[in-house]
Design goal:
Blueprint: E1 2-7, H1 15-37, H2 42-54, E2 75-81, E3 86-93, H3 99-109, E4 114-116, H4 117-126, H5 140-151, H6 163-166, E5 174-179, E6 185-191, E7 212-214, E8 219-225, H7 227-233, H8 235-246, H9 250-265, E9 269-275, E10 280-284, E11 288-294, E12 300-303
Parallel strand pairs: 3-4
Antiparallel strand pairs: 1-5, 1-11, 2-3, 2-6, 5-6, 7-8, 8-9, 9-10, 11-12
Helix pairs in contact: 1-2, 2-3, 7-9, 8-9
The protein binds glycine (GLY).
Glycine (GLY) is lined by residues 173, 191, 193-194, 203-205, 211, 224-227.
Length: 304
């Protein structure tokens, strides 16, 4: 399963834009299927899919990241392996094309789970990761989006849910989750965060249990939306716990998680979930969520 953000997505009324989003999601899902058909693991599949989503400027991650209050990109990402709960995360990084790949290196090449800002960039240099120039990230659209947010003195969700702002909100957090034929689960989430966020603000995406979670005993989860809501409810781990403690499947646990998110914090956003049996599920409190899935090697389905 992959997602490309949750929100009003009123800009997607235009058929051409809708087609563009859905084709990208379809192409990336099928790439993930190919990775696993060729013997790749769930972890390799989610890293590959998240990297492709980061490379598509339509989404709010990697080259499509939104800008903070200083007009700069600060990206967060995480990856988690359900086999042994190993995880890697980075926060507030810039000049890296694929933050999810840096998160994977934190997991496999360091003794830590999370590195941030300058320390994460130093680690990227240590690993020989190429730095991309600032103009790799900037587009006229994102500069305009920040200008409007500044005028309103507010931060904006990746795809804001209000009519007033929705036109500006065409970039979304991305995520990928997978179960491979061996039954291993993995999850990855990556984002530029929210428009006009304070410098140094970190959202849910790199926080294990909030924006990302994978445990072979339960499920893989990736979240998208207003990060503060997901951090306060630890939503991805909460869904996993519902599954474990109440013996729920993906659909039931997703519904329980969304009910909890709304009841406790009126949370804005959504989740994608695959359970240990390979059942796929999604839930969102926003009008729409761009997402797609291939369940048990079947047909590719894309929705928003
Ligand atoms: N869900 C992305 C963020 O709030 O940063």
């Amino acid at each position: 399963m992959v997602h490309g953000g949750a929100g009003a997505l009123d800009n997607v009324k235009d058929d051409k834009i809708a087609f563009r989003y859905l084709e990208s999601i379809r192409r990336i899902l099928e790439h993930g299927r190919d990775v696993m058909e060729l013997g790749g693991s769930a972890l390799q599949a989610v890293e590959a899919c998240a990297s492709l989503l980061e490379d598509d400027p339509a989404f709010n991650a990697g080259c499509g990241s939104v800008l903070n209050e200083n007009g700069k990109v600060e990206m967060d990402a995480a990856i988690m392996d359900g086999r042994d709960l190993s995880a890697g995360a980075i926060a507030a990084v810039d000049n890296i094309a694929n933050p999810v790949q840096l998160a994977r290196l934190v997991m496999t090449e360091s003794e830590h789970v999370m590195l941030i800002s300058e320390g994460a960039m130093r680690f990227a240099d240590h690993c020989g990761m190429e730095r991309v120039p600032e103009d790799y990230f900037y587009t006229a659209d994102r500069v305009e989006q920040l200008r409007k947010a500044r005028l309103k003195h507010k931060v904006m969700l990746d795809h804001d849910d209000t009519e007033e702002d929705s036109e500006d909100q065409k970039y979304g957090t991305i995520g990928a989750i997978a179960r491979d034929p061996k039954g291993n689960l993995a999850a990855a989430t990556s984002t530029g965060g929210i428009v006009n966020k304070r410098m140094g603000r970190v959202g849910d995406s790199p926080i294990v249990g909030a924006g990302v979670y994978a445990d072979n005993e339960t499920c893989a989860v990736s979240a998208t939306g207003f990060g503060e809501d997901f951090m306060r409810t630890v939503i991805s781990k909460t869904i996993s716990d519902f599954m474990l403690m109440k013996d729920l499947d993906a659909k039931q646990a997703t519904a329980a998680g969304i009910e909890y998110l709304v009841r406790k914090v009126k949370g804005r956003g959504g989740v994608i979930v695959i359970d240990r049996d390979g059942k796929c599920s999604s839930g969102f409190t926003t009008k729409k969520m761009i997402h797609g899935w291939i369940e048990k090697g079947g047909e590719t389905t894309c929705r928003f």
